[in-house]
Design a protein that fits this description.
Radius of gyration: 13 Å
Number of domains: 1
Strand order of the largest sheet: 4-3-2-1-5
Largest sheet: 5 strands, parallel
Number of helices: 5
Number of strands: 5
CATH superfamily: DsrEFH-like
Strand content: 15-25%
Length: 120
């Protein structure tokens, strides 16, 4: 049985260290061979849009754009349906590879045998 890491990041520029930790852990897990599903919720929803991760800056941290690209290349990135709707974001707006899905999909992922969920 392969364990999977499901990470929900709720923070964005409002809590940059917490936001960066989620992306860093997701990338570290992928590098270690762990399947990763990264959920963008709350203020992190904005990072589903092209160019937004590049604008994020946190001293002594890997560029958020690089971390997001790593997760997009090796894992799954999902934008919360309600979070997207509240911000007027549609599937046509997001970075290629980002899906929009809601709570039922999140619950299915976290209840999957071998899944470990983290919330930042």
């Amino acid at each position: 049985m392969t364990r999977q890491l499901v990470i929900k990041v709720t923070a964005g520029t409002d809590a940059p260290e917490r936001c960066n930790q989620a992306f860093t852990v997701a990338t570290a897990a992928l590098v270690s061979g762990v399947p990763v599903s990264l959920w963008l919720t709350g203020e992190s929803a904005w990072f589903a849009l092209p160019g937004r991760a590049k604008e994020f800056d946190l001293p002594e941290a890997a560029p958020l754009e690089d971390l997001l690209n790593a997760v997009l290349a090796g894992g799954q990135v999902t934008l919360c349906t309600q979070c997207a709707a509240r911000r007027g974001i549609t599937q046509d707006d997001v970075i290629p590879g980002v899906r929009i899905a809601g709570a039922p999909t999140f619950v299915e992922e976290v209840l999957h045998e071998g899944a470990q969920a983290l919330v930042y």
